[in-house]
Write a structure and sequence with these properties.
By secondary structure, the chain is mainly alpha-helical. It has a domain of about 80 residues. It contains 4 helices and no strands. Pfam families: zf-dskA_traR (PF01258). GO terms for molecular function: zinc ion binding. Keywords: Metal-binding, Zinc, Zinc-finger.
């Protein structure tokens, strides 16, 4: 084939699929941890032992709930992006830059498997 590849080979796509499935599994486990920390409040039943610091604790508790909520939202988006990458693998459009139409560098995809743009296109956005 002369010129640039139009898409990654089926073998490459299968390799990326394994990588992405592993990342989804880990991301979902992480999300469960974040959610359980959020639900449990990490309360050890010491509410009545130190009333002096109660106001400080409530403030930090609120902050950590907000931080956990933000983490959970980011994690859910990450999982959604990874699942979208699986759809692109199925459609054999995975790894093709949505801006330039060229193949995204393999090393970039290994580091950021849900990438939809090449570094070149990403830099043009700035």
């Amino acid at each position: 084939m002369v010129g640039e590849n139009v898409r990654y080979s089926d073998a490459d796509l299968a390799e990326f699929k394994v990588l992405i499935l592993a990342k989804i599994e880990k991301a979902q486990a992480d999300l469960e941890l974040i959610k359980s920390a959020y639900m449990n409040d990490l309360n050890n039943g010491t509410d009545d032992t130190s009333p002096t610091f109660k106001a400080f604790e409530e403030g930090s508790e609120t902050m950590s709930k907000e931080a956990n909520s933000q983490l959970a939202i980011r994690q859910e988006k990450f999982i959604r992006d990874l699942k979208n990458a699986l759809i692109r693998i199925q459609n054999k459009t995975y790894g093709i830059c949505k801006v330039t139409g060229k193949l995204i560098n393999k090393e970039r995809l290994k580091l950021v498997p849900h990438a939809t743009m090449s570094i070149e296109a990403k830099n043009q956005q700035r």
